[in-house]
């Protein structure tokens, strides 16, 4: 018998296509006004995964914090860990007018866990992209910004077992064959009908 099994984590996928209208003007407002160090925040609509959890993005269009000044920060938030631990992976990217990823704007994580005991349930990047680069590379003709986020929410582990019946590779010998082999070993010729 030959046994094979495969273990896989099943997941639900949530895809965000978020257009931030008038991003150019929002950034100007953030740089001109006396805002807190993290700048002003823009929050995406809420997206619901197939498992009942809510996900959204928060973007800070112009960071003023030391070591992050002039950067755009982008974070993924969820309420999923309110009820139980949640494992997920995600990827962010900014898109150009043709809908293609802008080089240098792809960021994500392969696997992350929020514990239900975590008070903070967000993950992301303080330095997602330099705001000047964003203005020159990523905005559409109306000054809007397209952000794409794909989240995989892992629900549980599944193991599939396949059993394949096969003929044994070594054929068992009969008692008669074993007896003949022993007699030959001791120098005696066994008769074919002995047994």
Please describe the topology of this protein:
Blueprint lengths: L1 E19 L2 H10 L9 E2 L3 E2 L5 E7 L10 E8 L7 E10 L11 E8 L7 E9 H7 L7 E20 L10 H11 L10
Antiparallel strand pairs: 1-9, 2-4, 3-4, 4-5, 5-8, 6-7, 6-9
Short characterization:
With about 200 residues, this protein is mainly beta. It has helices spanning about 25-30, 130-135, 175-185; strands at about 1-20, 40-45, 45-50, 55-60, 70-80, 85-95, 105-115, 120-130, 145-165. It is about 15% helix and about 45% strand.
What does this structure look like?
Residues 13-151 form the MATH domain. This is Speckle-type POZ (SPOP) family, MATH domain protein. There is one protein chain. The chain is mainly β and 195 residues long. It has helices at 23-32, 131-137, 175-185; strands spanning 2-20, 42-43, 47-48, 54-60, 71-78, 86-95, 107-114, 122-130, 145-164. 22% of the residues are buried.
Brief descriptors of the model:
disordered C terminus; five-stranded antiparallel beta sheet; 3 helices; 9 strands; mainly beta; Apoptosis, Tumor Necrosis Factor Receptor Associated Protein 2, Chain A; 195 residues; four-stranded antiparallel beta sheet
DSSP helix fraction: 10-25%
* Proper CATH architecture: Sandwich
Contiguous runs where pLDDT drops below 50 for at least 5 residues: 181-195
Structural class: mainly beta
What string gives the helices and strands in order? EHEEEEEEEHEH
């Amino acid at each position: 018998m030959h046994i094979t099994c495969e273990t896989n984590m099943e997941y639900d996928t949530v895809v965000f296509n978020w257009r931030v209208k008038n991003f150019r003007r929002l950034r100007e407002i953030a740089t001109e006004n006396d805002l807190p160090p993290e700048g002003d925040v823009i929050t995406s609509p809420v997206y619901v995964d197939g498992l009942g959890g809510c996900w959204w993005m928060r973007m800070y269009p112009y960071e003023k914090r030391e070591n992050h000044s002039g950067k755009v920060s982008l974070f993924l938030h969820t309420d999923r860990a309110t009820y139980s631990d949640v494992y997920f992976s995600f990827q962010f990217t900014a898109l150009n007018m043709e809908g293609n990823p802008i080089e240098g704007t792809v960021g994500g994580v392969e696997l992350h866990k929020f514990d239900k005991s975590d008070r903070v349930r967000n993950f992301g990047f303080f330095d997602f992209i330099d705001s000047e680069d964003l203005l020159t590379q990523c905005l559409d003709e109306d000054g809007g910004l397209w952000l794409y986020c794909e989240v995989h929410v892992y629900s549980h582990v599944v193991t599939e077992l396949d059993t394949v019946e096969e003929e044994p590779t070594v054929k068992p010998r009969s008692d008669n064959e074993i007896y003949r082999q022993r007699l030959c070993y001791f120098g005696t010729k066994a008769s074919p009908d002995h047994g």
